[in-house]
Amino acid sequence: MTKPNLLLELYSNLSTTGALTFSSKALVKKMVSQADLKGAKLIVEMGGGDGSITQGIVDEMDSSAELLVFEINTSFCEAMEKQFPQENVHIINASADELNAYLKGRKADFIFSSLPFSLIPKDVVDSILKQANAALVEGGAFIQICYSYLLKNLFQKYFKKVSISFTLKNLPPAFVMACKD
């Protein structure tokens, strides 16, 4: 799927994507820099979209690491499956709320998310964040892109420590919240 077609898909599904455009390279770099992916065994991404964050993760992770990418939009999944044919990258056409079913008891070193939590029903948000917290290894982190600083309050309900960085080099400018226990 071409970039213009992906953009059309993005705009056609604003209620589930929650984004005006895809993540900038500066935002992806800021997000991925919140994690030391060297030595990570299992990494999760929630909301793969056009694969821009996925590409940033793949560029930094070890070739022996496994990446699970959750995306509910079938068109985005089909495009990412072509973009990431590697055996250690798994594109999952399912809600992040199904995390436990796919981890099967395993723990993730890092979970990256661009989910639009402001647009997701509260019970589903609660389920996703509880599963994410429980799914992390000790010392792991849940790393989230946000367009509102106020979402820090949400993440503090599930994680003991939330550190925040900001980039203007994205449309709109964005916060990256790294959440740890």
Could you explain how this protein is built, in words?
The protein is α/β, with parallel strands linked by helices and 181 residues long. It has one domain (3-8, 41-180): Rossmann fold (3-Layer(aba) Sandwich). It has helices at residues 3-12, 14-17, 25-32, 52-60, 74-83, 99-103, 122-135, 151-156, and strands at 42-46, 66-70, 89-92, 108-113, 136-146, 161-167, 174-180. The radius of gyration is 15 Å and the shape is globular.
CATH superfamily: Vaccinia Virus protein VP39
Strand tally is: 7
**Helix vs. strand class:** alpha/beta
State the helix count: 8
Across the major sheet, the strand order is 3-2-1-4-5-7-6
Query: Helix amount, in percent?
Result: 25-40%
Beta-sheet strand percentage?
Answer: 15-25%
Summarize the structure.
By secondary structure, the chain is an alpha/beta fold.
Summarize this structure as a short list of keywords or feature phrases:
seven-stranded mixed beta sheet, alpha/beta, Rossmann fold, 181 residues, globular
